[in-house]
Amino acid sequence: MTNISRKKLTKDEINQIVSDSIFKQLGVKDEYLVVLYDLDSPLSRIMTQAHKDVLKDRNPEKTLIREYTPEDNAELVEMLSNLPEQSSVILIQSTSFRMDKFRIRLHLFNKNMGCMEHSHLSYYGPEEEQTWLRALTYMSEEYAKIGGKIKELMENYDEIKIYSGDITDPDILTFPDMEEAKINDGRFYQQKNRGGSSICGEIFSESKDLKSVNGKLNICCYPNAEFKIVQCEPFSVTIENGILTKWDDNAPQEFIDNLITRILESETDEEGNPEVMIREAGFGLNPFISMENPLSFVSVFERQAGFHISLGKKHAIYRSKFGKEVVQRYHMDIFATAFKISACNLDKNTGEIKEEVVFFKDGQYI
């Protein structure tokens, strides 16, 4: 993957990253372009200035760069609703712009427009700004290539194995017979709904039979109640027939209270017994995000080059596995100390591994 420099980005380098996000990732050409921004966080101010720099010579009749203020919601809703088809909108948000019940990105998609969001920028401290900016680097073709190889392995091998924890005595978690994987490679310009959250790089799936997942996984990171990442002393969890049943004594109380207890209070099996199901097997592809260079917001941190699972029955992509009567409230990602990930084919008679292809080792896809 990419050779990552830790030198502070120059203004020109930041502008190039932003230019690529506009013209390569979102695929902006000569259509009408609106940039809505706030100045409520250091990152939003950096991104706003970079957009102004990059777009300064663009046709002013087709370019609007405007500060967002809640008092203008009604006017902004009307303005966005009346943009011509194929227009593009970029949102630079310290949190997330709220326009009453008007869901900006979904509304624009329905009107055949593009929308890219840089959101929750206030979540990141000064030490994270450079990581966030680097993580925005356009690498969509590389993500598509790596993601495509992983997808092919999922489709052609019997199971995926995750090795984590102690290298000499690892925890091993097995996902048999995977669903069709989804790749978030950031090639917004190719999508029917052109746009999305700006930082990309992930492929995810789950086993077709959720109860077939078994093993142990060593955990080093989880989200708190504010959706911010907490790194902790690693601990192991046990998954039996797709259900998280045990965790080590050193598991943080915050992990138990904020994740396990909350899920147990609302999600149950067919007989009404509380349970914590695991669903997603997520493979982050973004090399600029890591345990050493984290990003606080969990929905962005899941792009880090490594492995995570989701706790809870909720999954927007594979939702049809449960009926509407089943409570599917939670989807909480937790992150593993995975040092090796492989695809395996099994002997049909003995069930033993007859072929194993390693595609992730020591923090890199190979």
Helical coverage, percent range: 10-25%
Structural class given helices, strands, pairing?
alpha+beta
Number of strands: 18
Report the C-alpha radius of gyration, rounded. 22 Å
Largest sheet: 13 strands, antiparallel
How many domain units? 2
Can I get a quick summary?
This protein has 366 residues and is α+β, with helices and mostly antiparallel strands. The protein folds into 2 domains: 125 residues, Rossmann fold (3-Layer(aba) Sandwich), CATH 3.40.50; 226 residues, no CATH class.
Q: Secondary structure elements and their pairing?
A:
Layout: H1 11-25, E1 33-37, H2 42-54, E2 63-67, H3 73-81, E3 88-92, H4 104-110, E4 114-118, H5 129-135, H6 140-156, E5 159-164, E6 171-176, E7 182-184, E8 195-197, E9 202-205, E10 214-223, E11 229-240, E12 243-247, H7 253-264, E13 278-284, H8 298-301, E14 306-311, E15 332-336, E16 338-346, E17 353-361, E18 364-365
Parallel strand pairs: 1-2, 1-3, 3-4, 4-8
Antiparallel strand pairs: 5-6, 5-16, 6-10, 7-9, 9-13, 10-11, 10-15, 11-12, 13-14, 14-15, 16-17, 17-18
